[in-house]
Structures are given as C-alpha cells and as structure tokens.
Amino acid sequence: MLFFNFLNNFFEKKVYTSIIIIGGDGSCACNLGWTNSDTGELCNSCASGYYGESCEKCSCPPNSHCNDGSSNFFPFFFFFFFFSFSFSFRNTSFLLFKKINLVIGGDGTCPCNTGWTNSGKTDCNTCDTGYYGVNCKACPVCGSHGTCNEGKEGDGNCTCSLGWMSSYPENCNVCAPGWTGTSCNSCLPGYYGSSCTPCSCPTNSHCNDGVEGDTGNFSKYFFLKVASSK
C-alpha cells in the first residue's frame, strides 16, 4: 500500500517538459549556380555568372562579361521523372512521367565589354577603336574630315584634317581660315603654301598666293612692275 501511495504522489508532483521542434516549410531553394527558368520551371537554368551543363561559376577579367546562362540560352530537352507513382488497374502498373525543359546557358567565354579589346591578349585592358580614356568612353563624331584622339591615353578630342576646323556643335565640318573649296583644299586669295599661310607683302607688291604660291616671289613682281613703268 505504501508503494502505491509513493507512485501516486510521484506522478502527481512530477512536471513534464515538452520540446517542440519546428522544421522547414518544404519550399525548394536552388543550389548555387542554378535558378528558375523564365517559363517557371524550377532550378533548371544557369543563374547569372554561371554557365554550362553543370552551371559552373564564370571567371572573367575586369572590363568583360561572361557568356553565361542569363545571356545565351541553349535549350536541351530531356525527360525527367518529375513525379511518379504506381497504381493497380487490372493487375497492371503504370508509371506516370512529366516532361520538363532543362535550360543550359553559355560556354563561359569572356567577351570584352563595349569599348574594350584584348589587343592580342585576353585581359580586355585596351580601348577599342573609337573609344578613349581610362574608362574607354565612346569618341565623339569627328566626321569624315577628323580623327578622334583615342586610346587609354587619349582625351577624345577631334583632330581635323588639314584645311578643316570644327563649327559647334559638329566637328571638322567647315574650312579652316585661309582655306576654301568643297574639299577645303585650296587657299583663299591672300594665302599661300601647303598650309595656306596669310601673305605678308609690302605696299605696292603682289602675293604669289595659292597652295603652290611662294611669297618670296613678290619682290620679283615688284621690280618687274617698276621696270615696266619707266
């Protein structure tokens, strides 16, 4: 009798503690390098910065971008056992399949960003043609009569061809002072030489102007004129 009273008192006074373990919610998170496709299929496409059948991580130098799963998709179609179950119907088992699309992207190559080039290497550290400065910005339009001071050491200014100059807002679009003609390749009257330099002749003389001119001949013209006037 004493034993039963002991057990009764033990269970009445004993306090039990319950531990509640709360788990996940059953949602599916893609593994590193994988993402959902645009059509809603789960984890069957390479994420940005990953490429190939295994969605490997890209390794590209600065000023370049990876040909990854987000930039160049190549769809391959496979059949997967998305879900299956069997059921008995006239002692025959049926297996149900669902088809999903596996989207594999890119080959991991690293084309240079716009404005950059390899210059014979693979590091994209040189400005491409038509770009300048440390950030390889696009050159302004210099027209058909000018060239951009391009390259990483360039400042992007337009250097006009001989005989041309810039008239804002366009570049190298009008004849420079002393030049004339549709191609700005002739000297105006009073200008001479290959650079159409202004003539500097004394009074009572005449400049041998033009592209082929030479102001040194003005004195000969002057003496001839004086002699003919006598």
Walkthrough of the structure:
By secondary structure, the protein is mostly beta strands. Among the domains are: 34-105, no CATH class; 180-230, no CATH class. 10% of the residues lie in helices and 26% in strands. The chain is built from two helices and 20 strands. The strands form ten sheets. It has a two-stranded antiparallel ribbon with strand order 1-2. A two-stranded antiparallel ribbon has the order 3-4. A hairpin with an 8-residue loop joins strand 9 and strand 10 (126-127). The longest helix has 12 residues, at 2-13. The radius of gyration is 42 Å and the shape is rod-shaped. Residues 72-101 and 219-230 have low confidence and may be disordered.
* Beta-strand percent range: 25-35%
How would you name the oligomeric state of the polypeptide chains in this document?
Answer: single chain
Number of strands: 20
Low-confidence stretches: 72-101, 219-230
State the major sheet: 2 strands, antiparallel
Descriptors for this entry?
single chain, mainly beta, two-stranded antiparallel sheet, two-stranded antiparallel ribbon, rod-shaped
